[in-house]
Amino acid sequence: MSSRFAPVLLALTVGIGLAAQSQAQQAASADMPVGPDGVLSLKSAMTWVMEKNFDLRIKQEDVYIAQDDVEHAKGEFDPSAYASGTYENNIRKLNAIDYESYGISSANPEDTLFHEDNIRTQVGITGKLPTGTEYDLTTTLNRLDNDVNKAGRFFSPEYESFAGITLTQSLLKGFGTKAGMADLRAARVAVHISQRTREVEVINKLIELTDAYYDMVFGLENLKVKQQAVSLAQKLRDENSERVRLGKMTSTDVTEADIKISEAKEEQILGEDFVRERRMKMLKLMLNKFSAGPIPEFTVATELSIEPITQTAAQYFETAIAQRPDYLLAQDEIRKGHITVDQTRNGLLPQLDLKLSYGKGGLDDTFGSSYEEIADQNQRRLSGGIVASFPIGNHKALADYHTAQHKVTQAQLSLDELKTSISLEVSNAVEHLAALQRRLDTASQSRQYAEQGLDVEQNRLEQGQTTSFSVLDFQRKVSDARTREIAARVDLKKAESELWGSVGIFMTKNGFVTDTEPNVHS
Question: Which burial class, exposed, middle or buried, applies to 33 when counting CB atoms under 10 A from its CB (0-12, 13-18, 19+)?
Fold first, then answer.
């Protein structure tokens, strides 16, 4: 660049520095992560978005809900303690069998009333094991007081006790840990799915932020070009005024410079509005609260270096299918589908349960002695049996099973489609990046040629060999060439982000560490 432009650039730099201080104060008041110079780095903006963005916070709640569902599924195997107490006070006539068995022979059966005053208590623990075994540990104590034992023929009152266990084991439907823990396994996979879904949303939001960020980089750099164009046009106008005074030019040259100044200021205003729009787009992604008033102003870092491409599209594709969260999400959907298939296949089986009960009882005239008999005497109570249920038709279970199979097929087809799409995305991103690199090289050459042409035309004007109109035209060409070069550089940087996103390494390339496996409560 010619040295004659140095004073203009120095004035612009000073002005931008003063503006940055004001912007830093405004951004700080809006609680934004800007530096003291008013500059917002891309990583700071990304970190802020991940913490503050409403959509991402909503998606995080989905993760919490899925984790709660895991705890809910675990609750199926939580034991339950129960207790009951019942008081009975009965007065009734005895039927013939009871009358004879109670041995009440001194009274008229038709006039005899039987009195009983009982207290019945029960305490136990019941639950289910992952194998499908249901258990019930129980103990009972009953205090029985009635006309029979009051007559002195037995203990008065009687203390009847029992302690035992009942087991119910599914032998077909619901048998084994695969069936018993299906809901829990599905809930754990659902946590993976919710976390993968949020990760996809995070990356999409950050890519959106990155595009807006680099658009703002373009806007700020382009604004500098437009401001410089205004300054150069003003400088030429001043020089032309001096030449008119000396009789070397006509007033027409000054008028042409005035026209150029107005055009350059118009483009500068448009450039300022472009920056405002891109700043607003970033603020919508970043802020989670705002009171109507002055819009916070800030600038962004203009680092636009490009990392060299070191791998082929095929190599990037292998990385993509190993790391892209949407591909891993599709695999998790298939895993969840297979769990449902197994669960519904088990649901086709008939219900066949083995039921076993074992316990011991005691009977005495005190609470303690009744319970001692449970351990000391062989008052065993043992039972066992089979309970079977065979659905006729079984249409619902068959429909559920076939639906689960179809959903797995759908998920597999979606995965295959996504794999093809990822392959095309990666190849396109690599080729797009290469094409934009060639565009940048060409744009840089065009800018250099335009600057050289302006230098030559400026020297010719000083020697009286051309008109100021021609110089103004070359200034416009230089301004346009610089804008095109900035646009090419920014588009190249955005294409690099597109490549990292398609490969699944966008987060790591921007300095964020991601877990290879989502967090699931054990």
Answer: middle
- The model carries a pTM of 0.78
Cβ-in-10-Å burial (0-12, 13-18, 19+) of 50 comes to middle
Q: Which two tokens stand for residue 419?
A: 């794999």
Measured on CA atoms in the order 261, 263, 264, 265, is the torsion positive or negative?
Answer: positive
State the DSSP H helix or E strand holding residue 512, giving kind and residue range, or none if neither.
Answer: none
Tell me: pLDDT of 1 over 50: no
Q: Give the end-to-end CA distance of the chain in Å, rounded to a whole number.
A: 64
User: In the numeric block, which tokens belong to residue 220?
Assistant: 């700020």
Is residue 4's pLDDT more than 60?
no
Nearest to 342 by CA among 520, 185, 522, 187: 185
pLDDT of residue 26 exceeding 70? no
CA 88, CA 105: separation in Å to the nearest integer?
Answer: 25
pLDDT tens digits for range 138-150: 999 999 998 888 8
Helices (H), 117-159: 147-150
Strands 133-146 vs 158-170: parallel, antiparallel or unpaired: antiparallel
- Amino acid at site 90: N
* Arithmetic mean of pLDDT, 464-472: 80
4: β partners: none
